[in-house]
Amino acid sequence: MASTEPKHEHREEEEEATGADDEDTGAQVAPIVQLEEVAVSTGEENENPIIDLKAKLYRFDKDGKQWKERGAGTLKLLKHKETGKVRLVMRQSKTLKICANHLVLPTMTVQEHAGNEKSCVWHAPDFADGELKNELFCIRFASIENCKSFMEMFQEVAESQKKQESEDGSTAAGLLEKLSVEDKNSEDKSDRKAEEKTKEGDVKEEKAEDKTKEGDGKEEKAEDQDAEKKDESASA
C-alpha cells in the first residue's frame, strides 16, 4: 500500500510557498496617473428647488400618434434666486440625461390624465434636446398624493408668474413715465437756457448800441469843440 506522506509534504511546501508570495513586503506602488477632483456644474447653482419628486415622463409622438417614454428620474421645479423665474427640469436617474427642461409660463395649465389619478398632462415649449419644441407631456408618479402635489404647485407657480409679469409691466410703465418726465424737464431746461441766451444776446446788443451811441456823442462833442476853437481863432 503506497504511502500518502510525500503528497502531504508536497502540499505543505506549496502552502508555504504561497504564503511567502502573499507576504506584505511593505513596498508601495505609486499610481501612474494622478486624477484631480473636478467641480461639476449642473446649471442649478443659482436656483432653489421648490419641489423634488420621483416620476416617469412620457411625450406624445405626433407622427406615431402614441406616447413614448422619455425616462424615469427626478422631477424638479427650480426658482431662480434673482429673476424669480421657475423652470421644470427632469433628469434620468442613471445617466442624468435631461428629458424635460422648460420655463413654467403664466399661460400653462396642467390636467389630470383621463383614467389615471397618478398621472397628469400639459403642453410646453421644451428645450431638453437643445432646441425649442412644442411638446405634450404626460408624467406618472408613484402615488396620487405626489401627483396632486405636483399639479397644485405647477398651477401656483403659473399664477405667481402672472402676478410677476403684471408687476414687471407696472414697473416698466413707471420707468417709462419717469423717463418721459425727465425728458420733458430736460426739454424745459433747454428751452429756458435758450431763452436766457437770447436775452443775454439782446442785452449784449443793447450794450453795443449804447457804446456806439456813446462813441457818436463823443465824436459830436469833439467836432463842436473844434468848431468853437475855429470860431475863437477867427474872432481873434
TrEMBL record:
It is found in: Nucleus, Nuclear pore complex. Residues 12-25 have a biased composition (Acidic residues). GO terms for cellular component: cytoplasm; nuclear pore. Residues 1-11, 179-221, 227-236 have a biased composition (Basic and acidic residues). Keywords: mRNA transport, Nuclear pore complex, Nucleus, Protein transport, Translocation, Transport. Residues 1-28, 161-236 are annotated as: Disordered. Residues 28-163 form the RanBD1 domain. InterPro entries: PH-like_dom_sf (IPR011993), Ran_bind_dom (IPR000156), RanBP1-like (IPR045255), RanBP1_RanBD (IPR045256). This is RanBD1 domain-containing protein. GO terms for biological process: mRNA transport; nucleocytoplasmic transport; protein transport. CDD domains: RanBD_RanBP1. It comes from the Eukaryota. The keyword Coiled coil does not apply. GO terms for molecular function: GTPase activator activity.
